[in-house]
Amino acid sequence: MKSAIRRIYTQMKMKPYEHPAALYPYHEWNLSEDRYDEENNQRSESVFALGNGYIGMRGNFEEGYHGTRGTSVIGNYLNGFYDSEPIVYPEGSYGNPTRNQAMLNVTDAKIIELTVEGHAFHLNSGQIHDYKRELDMKKGILHRLVEWESPAGHRVRIRIRRMVSLQHKHLAAIDYELTALNFEGEITLTSIMNGEVAKQEATDDPRLGGGNAEPNLLLEDARHEEHFIWMKQRTRHTQFTLLTAMSHTIQSVSDAQISETLDGERISAGFTLSMRNGETISFTKYISYHTSKDCAEDELLSGAAEVLRMAEQRGFEELASEQQAFLHKFWNRVDIEIGGDPALQQGIRFNAYQLLQSAGRDGVTNIGAKGLTGEGYEGHYFWDTEMYILPFFTYTQPEVSKALLEFRYATLGKARERAQVMSQKGALYPWRTIDGEENSAYFPAGTAQAHINADIAYGIKQYVQATGDYDFLVTKGAEILFETSRFWADMGHFNPAKGGSFCIDAVTGPDEYTAIVNNNAYTNLMVQDQLCYSYETARLLQEQYPHHYERLQQEIGLTEREISVWLDAANKMFVPFDEKLGIYAQDDTFLSKQKWDFDNTPADKYPLLLNFHPLVIYRHQVLKQADLVMALFLLGEWFTLEDKVRNYNYYEPLTTHDSSLSPCIHSIISAEIGDLEGAYSYFDRTVRMDLEDINRNAKDGLHMAAMAGSWMSIVNGFGGMRLYDGVLCFSPALPRQWESYRFKILNRGQLVDVFVDGQGAVYTLLEGDGLEIKHRDHPLLLSPQAPVRVPFVK
Ligand code: BGC
Fold first, then answer.
1. Is 383 marked as a binding-site residue?
2. At which positions is substrate bound (predicted)?
3. Contacts with 760 (C-beta within 8 Å, 6 or more apart), sequence order
4. Which fold has domain 720-794?
5. Ligand 1 pocket, residues with Cβ under 6 angstroms
6. Is the distance from CB of 627 to CB of 636 less than 8 angstroms?
7. What's the gap in Å between 623 CA and the centre of ligand 1?
8. Residue 80: enclosing H or E segment and its boundaries?
């Protein structure tokens, strides 16, 4: 049968494997454009976004835009900083969340306006003689170079470097260098902070989210201090405080005349000076953000003063060296090399870089579906974290994974409350959230996705097995596992109608094109795995950490009886299977529905969710994304290769990949069942999803799960890596399009380098004192710095 992805490519009149003309030229370590493209500017603003896991800044120009309406979405975000508004349901039902949370677009402090002899610089005026923008992923700096001639003929060269500091959570900096090329005269640089943030217009696209037009940030105060300017605002509903501050340094031959204005929510510092022909002035702006979520309200100002003072003392160049040093360490652990494919090489590095920029690292924030690059999905955190993003960090920077899991621990109380609202024991994690409360207003593709509980449990298990961090398991992870297992034991039931098997009814699996079903196979399999792991963890605590076991007995009333029920439920888990087809049924009724008529669905009707009522979709065998196929990957050792082939061949042609989370999982399973062409095609689509704007919505923010999924496609797909019984197993293959690839994996503090080319695989232990791994079922003992070569058998 023709594969779904090839069919869609054909419908879209695109051939697989051919990269469309590059939107951004292929460079291994940077992303650049040499022309300002107003029509696609919003997309470029996402792609050139900077962040440090706390501050996110879209790639907006300092001078703003004067083009057609909708040219730009000015965006500045702080991870975990939100406002909350009532959700209006024309027809409500009990237990629906009553208030939403939306990541706030905060005060824009990156504005720098320039006038040259009275003419304002912007890209829609005068003449542009040279333009280049470049994101340097080794240095962590966004560069812009513009040579501009004003309508009066004065020519200047402007070189702007922007960074959001990876070392200093609250700091961003812009260095603005201006050279007069053919005149002597007066220029003014005005550095502005604008607290009046325009909201995006509401659309019908459920992936964007709505909201009303009222401003969410209300001005409380704004002042000039001796060295800096600040503005204090409060969120309308959540009553959080935000303090944005900026300070400046300027180096020029003549002294600047300085003027400062406080004009409502727009405050500025102006620097007017006369320039000589050929002179270069250097202007640096430091920006800090602090909120009452990070520190006490009366410490906001001193926090800002301290950060700005530190930044000024170091200066832009020193901050830039620190940034480079940070990234040097990052790439040493994380880099993936692809030999012979510059497009994909660029794509995979860009994805790793953006993941670093967006993941919260403080244990109280997480990573939004679009990171800190745009407002799609309102900045919410989903299962994307544990199932897609966590593996990337677990095997490269486990400390980030730990922080992401700590967020779940920090919000366990809210998950307990949610389970109560749902008339259930234990804890139910929210499908989408910022501070731990459920935020999904459409429960069939929201709260019904209770599999999030099992996904979090799986993330904990993988993290502990890969790192050996038992301290996390016993102090935090176990409590999450037990409370979420309690939920399953209470919500599922031993069903006499199914011979006493344990059934889980009225849930939605990962595939959001099929909703509220009984016994979604993915959910039941993942819960089975979770219940076994919870049981094992309880036994581990009893035997090796009795003090923690007793603590949990007292604190959450853990009983011996419930632990045995978990094992019983796991043993008797019902997993729907169709004997005739020899495959797992996605759920109790899926296989009895009509198949979707793909042949008569034109390409412009995708994604289906924007073109058909949910019920029309629910009535058919059609998938938005990997569901059972995802379980084939996650619980790989439970299935034979033949099982995988049969199930994949059934579900793949029914899958639209309307969710960006889907192609990477299909790439992994294609590779496992030996279809390298299919694997490459799906990988190609995942790895450059945003750089080619494949889903045509990169403007709303980048697809974090797909980005992390592209890492999994190489490591777990082509590299065939699995962690079975705590042992790293590899089964590498080389797609014909590549000369070689290389990646690194951190396992319990030991760092392994895996290199694959046409001859075979080479495993090198870069850090650590000895590690046993498996290459295609054969055990290999790796000793430090002694490469082990395993040739491919022809
Ligand atoms: C997908 C979900 C995902 C969400 C956020 C939806 O389109 O169906 O699985 O969690 O996007 O990325």
1. yes
2. 383-384, 624-625
3. 789, 790, 791, 792
4. Maltose phosphorylase, domain 3 (2.60.420)
5. 369, 377, 382-384, 510, 512, 624-625, 659, 661, 705
6. no
7. 13
8. strand 76-83
Pick the CATH number of 397-575 from 3.30.310.50, 3.30.70.270, 1.20.140.10, 1.50.10.10: 1.50.10.10
- Using alpha carbons only, how large is the chain's radius of gyration in Å? 27
Residue 290: which H helix or E strand, with range?
A: strand 280-291
Q: Which residues contact 112 (CB under 8 A, 6 or more apart)?
A: 62, 63, 174, 176, 189, 190, 191, 192, 283, 285
Domain 36-332 in CATH 2.70.98.40: yes
DSSP three-state, residue 439: coil
* 301 vs 112: CA distance, rounded Å: 23
pLDDT at 482 over 60: yes
Q: What gap in Å lies between CA 697 and CA 708, rounded to an integer?
A: 18
Tens of pLDDT along 411-456?
Answer: 999 999 999 999 999 999 999 999 999 999 999 999 999 999 999 9
Distance CA 201, CA 191 (A): 27
Contact 763, 773 (CB under 8 A): yes
- Token pair for 17: 């494997």
The dihedral region occupied by 132, where left means phi > 0, alpha psi between -120 and 50, and beta the remainder, is beta
- Relative to the CA of 512, which ligand 1 atom is closest? 8
Q: What are the structure tokens assigned to 412, written together?
A: 């366990």
Active site residue 512: yes
Structure tokens of 711?
A: 């890492």
At 751-784, the pLDDT tens digits run 999 999 999 999 999 999 999 999 999 999 999 9
